[in-house]
Amino acid sequence: YLVLNLNYIHLTKILCIFAAWVHGDPRKVIYPTDSYGQFCGQKDTPNENKTILFYFNILKCASPIVLINLQCPTTQLCVSKCPDRFATYIDVQASYRYKPDQWNYFRQFCKPGFNNPRKSVAQVLRDEDCPSMIIPSRPFLKRCFPDFSTKNGVLTVANQTTFKDGRGKTRNVTDLREAANGINNVLDARSVGMKIFEDYAISWYWILIGLFIAMIVSLLFLVLLRFTAGVLFWIFIFGVIGIIGYGIWHCYWEYDHLKGIPGSDLTVYDIGFQTDFRVYLQLRQTWLAFMIILCVVEIIIILMLIFLRNRIRIAIALLKEGSRAIGYIMSTLFYPIVTFILIAICISYWAVTAVFLATSGEPVYKVMANQTLCKYANLTCDPETFNTTNVTKLCPGAQCTFAFYGGESLYHKYIFIFQLANAFVFLWLVNFAIALGQCTLAGAFASYYWASRKPADIPLWPLFSSFGRAIRYHTGSLAFGALILAIVQLIRVILEYLDHKLKGTQNSFTRFLLCCLKCCFWCLEKFLKFINRNAYIMIAIYGKNFCTSAKEAFFLLMRNVVRVAVLDKVTDFLLFLGKILVAGGVGVLAFFFFTQRIPVFAQEAPTLNYYWVPLLTVIIGSYLVAHGFFSVYAMCVDTLFLCFCEDLERNDGSTAKPYFMSASLHRILGKKELSPKKA
């Protein structure tokens, strides 16, 4: 069954790649396409030096989005540069005899090969041999957009507010306002983007230094956890108890202070609902309720500490043991780089295949007619046979021009299915890369725990040995676990897609059902990630298949459920605290550096457009660096915990069955904890 599933996945992947590479053409994304379906700027073609797309009548394009989607109802040509002046075909034709330079300039925006200024203006405009006008433009997204600017709050093009449209009318620049507003926003964003790029170009060296500092701080934090884990945890716990205690005292003080004040003895029920919540703070009943709630929370925390003190000590001891294990196997700290490279390869595969699939449509040509009553307008056509049809006779001036990429074949109808299959394979590969990393790290740390004499009995290259075992013996189990998780994640993606499509629906039951399904599958994904993680640990320890390992890990954790809960929360708190300390500390240092507030480095700090660009990069990067290091630590603690539970159940501390746990854990357990059946 496992082999059949894996073969199916490989077959799906091969089919997606084959279909995408056979039918796809990324040039459709890289190069603009003219009205004849030819790419602008493509090498070894007549348009090699014509890299920009020019629109004959940009007034027909209602929105910039229409231009970008290549569906503007006007002739589109590839040109080497955009127009830099106002001109109309009528004026240029009238003066071509004594001003040939103007004709030669205007002619480069006409259809290729057209050089007949004697042809009547009406026929030229009907056949769209040349544009009726050209306006100053500049290239953006490899397309000619009007060169808009603002002068004293007035929208202008080349400092002019009016222009001739070449059809006997004088138009105002505001006629392009709808397109101009969108284009100017894009151009403003482009200006900001260029400044951000400049900031990165200037500060990349210092950003790398900041990330290196984050790496060193993360490493030091993990090493120091061996000595500070207990101190940090108990400081936090007693701090919480102290803060809650202060809250109880403050509530009592407010309750006593309001005694005798008119209106303070009213109840919440008496005054009803109030939008100004400060009204409730004038009631004694409010502070009494707060005080009771805080007292209950305080008592719960104290009781938990009393009854779970031993398990908390075990959790802290395992954290210290994890720090010690990483100290002996330092190479594990850099394994996340391998996982990052594998995931980057997966993302690249998915992106390339998705682009090829998205560009696998055939050119679709449609009839573009100047007459609004032409019944053939916007119908599909064949440019090779168009001139032999009656369309040109019934609709004079009509042309068969390129519209977009698509198709109606069986393959094109199922492109969405191929995209889903590609997404599924992507999720499967990413989950497999993560599973491989977890199993590799678990094997390395398990070899530490089960060593009789630490570190003498630890294998010479524990990480590389574990990686080799995972690749050679456990690939199928890891792939099967990743497959199950990928199926659930794909269902979640489909549910999100359906939710997005049905957002406008008024059916309350449909929205409620989708919400419930999304919640259920979110919980299922979290549960499967937890089971898979522990199953991979058991696979690394015993080498059994996925299902057996998942079952044994689940029941082992259920028999130690209290320890699991305590260890999980203690670990999460300390690692979250570590991430905040690393990201916050390095972020504060970066803030003072990039704002030139450190006198020693004031001259070294670069001059930036936006200092928040490298600052945010350093903060986010530091958090990710810390997360990479701490994910190894979390895997180490989880592995040692499962080994610890197995050690308790399989051994009794006798000479025949000695414990493999460290002396510190043995001391914490004491005689009462030596029974393997206790949780």
UniProtKB/TrEMBL annotation:
Subcellular location: Cell membrane
Keywords annotated in UniProt: Antiport, Cell membrane, Glycoprotein, Membrane, Signal, Transmembrane, Transmembrane helix, Transport
One Pfam family recorded for the sequence: Choline_transpo
One example GO MF annotation: antiporter activity
InterPro entries: Choline_transptr-like
Segment forming the signal sequence: 1-24
Keyword Transport recorded: yes
Swiss-Prot/TrEMBL catalytic activity: choline(out) + n H(+)(in) = choline(in) + n H(+)(out)
Bilayer-crossing regions: 204-224, 231-249, 287-308, 328-352, 425-450, 471-495, 573-594, 615-635
Membrane topology field: Multi-pass membrane protein
Function of the molecule: Choline transporter. Choline/H+ antiporter.
Homology family: Belongs to the CTL (choline transporter-like) family.
Name listed for the protein in its UniProt record: Choline transporter-like protein
Species name: Halcyon senegalensis
Organismal lineage: Eukaryota, Metazoa, Chordata, Craniata, Vertebrata
